[in-house]
Amino acid sequence: IVKLSPNVTDIAYMAQVVENEGADAISLINTVLAMDIDINKRRPVLNNVVGGLSGPAIMPIALRMVYEVFAAVDLPVIGMGGISSWQDALKFMMAGASACALGTANFVDLSVIDHVASGLRQWCQKEGVNNITEIIGSAQV
């Protein structure tokens, strides 16, 4: 499983490269490069100037990249980046993720994975989805 960074100009191309090199699956995304400035010190907050931004703020970026990569390769995609609810996970799966990973959300709610799993189960029952795999990539146009 190759984890791709979002800090590239063409994520679909990077996915094709790792597919051609023999990857079995792709996970995306990692943190997005970001920074902050301390206005009192007039200096970057981090000693390295930039650091990785994660959590809900990056979800739309991650969702777009999962969507693009799913359309570009024939590998399973593991989506991550700001997922904090079953609705978020469902969006990632509709974009093309075969699986989802939750990271930052665990710092807020240790039972978030249980909530996501039960929410997905209830949604599938309500919508008549017999197997969650039926929705993978269903939002592709």
Structure notes:
The mean pLDDT is 95. The chain is flat, with a radius of gyration of 17 Å. The chain has five helices and eight strands. A hairpin with a 4-residue loop joins strand 4 and strand 5. With 141 residues, it is of the alpha/beta class. It has a four-stranded parallel β-sheet with strand order 1-2-7-8, with helices on one face. Strands 3-6 form a two-stranded antiparallel sheet.
- Report the span from N to C terminus: 26 Å
Strand order of the largest sheet: 1-2-7-8
Question: Mean pLDDT score, rounded?
Answer: 95
Q: Return Rg in Å.
A: 17 Å
Provide the β-strand percentage band. 15-25%
Which structural category do the helix and sheet elements fall into? Answer: alpha/beta
Low-confidence stretches: none
Largest sheet: 4 strands, parallel
Q: What is the global morphology?
A: flat
Order of helices and strands: EHEEEEEHEHEHH
Helical content band: 25-40%
Give the tally of β-strands: 8
How many helices in DSSP terms? 5
Identify the notable features of this structure and list them briefly:
141 residues; four-stranded parallel beta sheet; alpha/beta; flat; two-stranded antiparallel ribbon; 38% helix; 16% strand
Record the SSE blueprint.
Layout: E1 2-3, H1 11-20, E2 26-28, E3 32-34, E4 37-38, E5 43-44, E6 51-53, H2 59-72, E7 77-80, H3 86-95, E8 99-101, H4 105-108, H5 112-127
Parallel strand pairs: 1-2, 2-7, 7-8
Antiparallel strand pairs: 3-6, 4-5
Helix pairs in contact: 1-2, 2-3, 3-5
